[in-house]
Amino acid sequence: MDIEIIHRPGAALARCVVKPGDSPLRVEAGAMVGRSVNITMETQSGGMMKGMKAMLGGESFFMNKFTATGSAGEVLVGAALPGDLEVVEVSSSQGWNVAQGAFIACEDTVAIETKFGGLKAMFSGTGLAHLKATGSGRLVIGAFGAFEALDVDGSLIVDNGHVVAWTSGLDYKISKAGGGFIAAYLSGEGAVCRFSGQGRVLIQTRNATAFGQFIGKMMPPV
User: What CA–CA distance (Å, rounded) separates 199 from 161?
Assistant: First the structure.
């Protein structure tokens, strides 16, 4: 399967070329923009428990699978928020953790599991649960704004609203930005993610929560 990111970074789409015999392309419900007529779609829920866990991870109860019949075809997928898309490789030696709402699509050979992070995850900006990607294949994730890749060799602090994904070799914990609760409030910074170990963190240049709050202040009262 060929995956190409186009119209980046502000309005990115992933053009996925699916050929007969390829493993299906799994796509988050609502992320498909268009597809060739010879591409068939199958909608799966994965069962009640799996669906509920996916929803807690910021994903839809349903997942769509696309396969090619007769000849190769294209599937265009995109994110709900304006920004870039990135393709990351998942392998037996390198899995990925994906923050709430960042998953777009993956090859069917990639296993997606919802992992609960407890209260620390709820306040981290990664959601009450995040997605763990294992197996082998490619994974498409979305950012609000552009991506920046940060290599970690020891420790790294990232604002909670900017985390998109991180490699499986990293541990993280949630803490205040520093200086106590009053200082955190006055600084405009709340919780941060402190990563430790060796690996890579993908961050987004814009914060969706902060953007929503900014727009909300401009809306007329109901």
Answer: 20
